[in-house]
Design a protein that fits this description.
- It is built from 20 helices and 17 strands.
- By secondary structure, the chain is of the alpha/beta class.
- 36% of the residues are buried.
- It starts with 9 loop residues before the first helix and ends with a helix.
- The strands form 3 sheets. Strands 3, 5, 6, 7, 8, 15, 16 and 17 form an 8-stranded mixed β-sheet that branches.
């Protein structure tokens, strides 16, 4: 069925009051428009991407200049040009091989026992960019739309110039956000939604009477969860370290507990009990947090730190699942005895949830929290930063060129973003135009070069103004009368004439080269077709001769066999007649 397959979830349909447009996207309907292709996409195209070729440390990250660029192969797929992507702790874990066996099974069950089939692997679970190509079954997004999405961990990630996504995971980016701001939200939004809504059962209509504890609230998931719960009217208590207290309070937390200087458990016991606890830390949290929940009131302890994938990595798929099941069963039974529920939650991409979150962002109830930004060339530095822990928001990678991102930022100036650090240093964001091996970069390179003066023009202007090469190298070039007076200046007129002649010459040479290339290609194609036809004819002739020879031999063998059979039969008849006559003679003699 050609459609965006977004399955109807009760918590999405009953409680969120989705618009008719979103409900239409949930339905399964036939194709309504043809495939939309981008000019930049072609078979065999390549792009730049940060990949790992084996699991390990930060040293395994490598910038691949000619990584195969994705293209749409199915009706539900979308190719997105990445403008920005963000880094999450999950990417750090996946770089070291976290969940490799389960993810390999999810990618292709046939390769379960074959290690290394996922390489080269591109990391990155968040993306904000522009749709380049859409399959015929994707009708809520068209080529050219600005989109955002969270990427499943078994798919290739967003630390690349382009990424292939499932249409059900893609949503239109809120216009109030730049790409850098938008890239900081999808992963944490999908994870928090899975924990609070899908597993915890919270929604906009029942949250106002709930008390929720967010343990580990200063990271990406924690900061988003606080904003989502406050947007729904919940009472939020947050725990974090000292350097994150100001951020958590600014986001609207009602009570904040400093974990670095006080015993969080003892201080939390002095507060009213909670309806739900969201655990972002793990460890021994459940051993003391269960007593903080309201007993026999449907209260839940939801943790995002489960041992499932770590068990499958260390014990194998079957033993790991069995061990995890026993652990979950044991903790669930113990919690039921206390009158509360124990649950595991997992990161699940959800495009419909992003639609709803986009509405909250547009209304100003949720704002992105960006701690640091890094250019595409400094992805390893961004990994090292996130590995230090104690995040105070998201770390974002800018993939598109500086011009594209600055123009996007100039269109969106709502002032809702919390930004801490930008790592620009001496490395510009315009890395894309420097690598001609990337087909995605060619459009930006062409656009940049059309507005750049030629070296001949610069040299001529320098000569008119009396500037020297040494002044240029030392950075002492200033704008002179040649630019101030315009085309009426004699030097400027000469420059324009030379530039026009050079441009005309370049166009002529390019046309001649293109014509020559086309002619050679046509001749080679004609020669190839002729040779292929001759080979095919020769093959057919030889096959016919072999077949005729085979038939002739078969007929001769059959004729020989028939003749021999007739002779044998005739001999047998003659022998039988002689035997009969001899028998009659013997009988007559006896008489």
């Amino acid at each position: 069925m050609l459609a965006c397959q977004r399955w109807l979830r009760p918590q999405n349909v009953n409680f969120l009051r989705l618009s008719s447009e979103t409900l239409l996207r949930l339905a399964v309907y036939p194709c309504t428009r043809n495939i939309s292709l981008s000019v930049a996409r072609s078979h065999g195209a390549s792009m730049r991407a940060w990949v790992i070729n084996r699991y390990g440390t930060n040293d395994e990250l490598a910038l691949m200049e000619n990584h195969p660029a994705p293209s749409v192969n199915h009706a539900h797929e979308v190719v997105v040009k990445v403008h920005a992507a963000s880094l999450n702790p999950l990417d750090i874990s996946m770089r070291g091989g976290y969940g490799a066996g389960v993810l390999r099974l999810r990618r292709d069950p046939r390769t379960l026992l074959q290690r290394g089939t996922e390489f080269p692997l591109v990391l990155g679970r968040d993306v904000s960019g522009v749709a380049l190509e859409c399959g015929s079954g994707v009708t809520h997004v068209q080529a050219g739309d600005e989109v955002w999405a969270s990427i499943p961990p078994w798919q290739q990630g967003s630390f690349a110039e382009c990424v292939l996504l499932n249409g059900s995971d893609v949503s239109l980016k809120p216009k109030a956000l730049s790409h850098v701001e938008a890239a900081s939200i999808p992963y944490v939004a999908a994870t928090a939604w899975s924990a609070l809504v899908t597993t915890g059962g919270l929604h906009s209509e029942n949250c106002s009477k709930k008390r929720i504890l967010v343990h580990g609230a200063s990271g990406g998931i924690g900061t988003f969860s606080i904003q989502l719960l406050k947007a729904w009217g919940g009472h939020v208590t947050a725990t974090c370290f000292k350097d994150g207290l100001g951020l958590v309070k600014e986001l609207g937390a009602d009570d904040v507990i400093d974990c670095s200087t006080t015993d969080a458990a003892s201080q939390l016991r002095t507060l009213q009990k909670f309806d739900l606890i969201l655990d972002n830390v793990g460890g021994e949290t459940d051993s003391w947090a269960m007593d903080l929940l309201k007993p026999w009131a449907g209260s839940k302890f939801v943790t995002l730190v489960s041992p499932l994938l770590r068990n499958t990595d260390s014990l194998g798929l079957v033993d790991g699942v069995l061990q995890s099941g026993m652990t979950l069963h044991d903790k669930a039974i113990r919690s039921v005895v206390k009158g509360v529920f124990y649950r595991w939650a997992f990161y699940v991409p959800d495009g419909v949830a992003l639609d709803r979150i986009g509405e909250l962002v547009s209304s100003g109830k949720i704002r992105p929290v960006v701690e640091a930004t890094y250019p595409f060339s400094q992805v390893p530095e961004a990994f090292r930063k996130v590995e230090t822990g104690h995040a105070r928001g998201k770390t974002v990678i800018t993939v598109a060129t500086e011009e594209a991102e600055s123009s996007s930022s100039s269109r969106h100036t709502d002032g809702h973003t919390l930004t801490t650090t930008t790592h620009d240093t001496d490395v510009p964001h315009t890395h894309t135009a420097k690598h001609t091996g990337s087909s995605v970069a060619e459009e930006k390179t062409h656009a940049t070069q059309t507005h750049t003066p030629s070296p001949v023009m610069v040299a001529a202007v320098m000569a008119v103004e009396g500037l020297t090469v040494e002044a240029v190298e030392e950075g002492r070039v200033e704008t002179g009368p040649a630019f101030a007076e315009g085309p009426e200046h004699p030097g400027a007129h000469c420059i324009e004439t030379e530039s026009a002649e050079m441009a005309q010459s370049t166009v002529t040479e390019s046309a001649e080269m293109a014509q020559s290339t086309v002619t050679e290609s046509a001749e080679m194609a004609q020669s190839t077709v002729t040779e292929s036809a001759e080979m095919a004819q020769s093959t057919v002739t030889e096959s016919a001769e072999m077949a005729q020879c085979t038939v002739t031999e078969s007929e001769e063998m059959a004729q020989c066999t028939v003749t021999e059979s007739a002779e044998m039969a005739q001999g047998s008849v003659a022998q039988a007649a002689v035997g009969t006559q001899m028998t009659e003679t013997v009988d007559t003699g006896h008489r």
